[in-house]
């Protein structure tokens, strides 16, 4: 696979967002010797996303290769899979349709991935940019992909980075796929707010022996449309995003906590539940001293909703146990691949 960067924008009904995102890509200062391309994956949009994507790129940066792909299966994970299959270059940069990359992003990402062959996934630092002034409770939440992902640039101990602005080594992805990895999460699907596919990929690639990195110099703006800054959206997000726990908790137990068998899985499973129960109890105690309707009270309400939704996911013990066994099975294939 040729060294270079394939910039991928997976989008569903992104016609309103794409012009600014594509304009920022056109402003990239990429050294002439670095090969790169832009791929837009239209994930079953019902608006004029495809036409807007083509028109905007032709307007700003015609000479750089541009491709428009159509993924009829709704789900961000499926859109990413199609892009990874079609990308020309070794380093695949996932730029969400609301990510505005700073001018040196592509060059910096290319240099890091080239210099550190152990990096499987590289994450950046997003800064939230709100379309309208957000209420205090919304600005205080950690539900949006933004901010530093580690105390310093380098390997990330948690083995995950958010998908916005991340760069994946295609060779690492091909290793896990050839070993039998198949995503268990569709990630964002149409108008639904399910998530976690980016973390699932990070965990799988880390299990294959690659490092997950963060670099503070990879800066981008994460644009927040006004329609995403409301109470209904936030409550839906916390309820629906917790569904990914049935996959991510088994991965966390194996990758971060070292669980290698069912006994270890059970012990760590209980430990994680107890940790969430303790957080829930603390949030309930905090609620007693907060006046209803205040900004602090709203933040607490959302915190409680998130914790309760996550704890409810642990009711599906059999599903999590089955997913853990799937992970162990695929990991064995990774080891055989490396022999």
Characterization of the model:
Helices cover about 45% and strands about 20% of the residues. The chain has twelve helices and nine strands. The chain starts with a strand and ends with a helix. It has helices spanning about 20-25, 50-60, 75-85, 105-115, 135-140, 170-180, 195-205, 230-240, 245-255, 260-290, 295-315, 315-339; strands at about 1-10, 35-40, 65-70, 90-95, 100, 120-130, 155, 165-170, 210-225. The protein has two domains: about 1-230, Spore Coat Polysaccharide Biosynthesis Protein SpsA, Chain A; about 250-339. The chain is of the alpha/beta class and about 350 residues long.
Please trace the helix and strand order, writing H or E for each element: EHEHEHEEHEHEEHHEHHHHH
Beta-strand content? 15-25%
Q: Averaging pLDDT over every residue, what do you get?
A: 93
CATH fold title of the largest domain? Spore Coat Polysaccharide Biosynthesis Protein SpsA, Chain A
Query: Count of helices?
Result: 12
Question: Could you name the ranges where pLDDT drops below 50 across 5 or more consecutive residues?
Answer: none
CATH architecture type of the largest domain: Alpha-Beta Complex
How many structural units, i.e. domains?
2
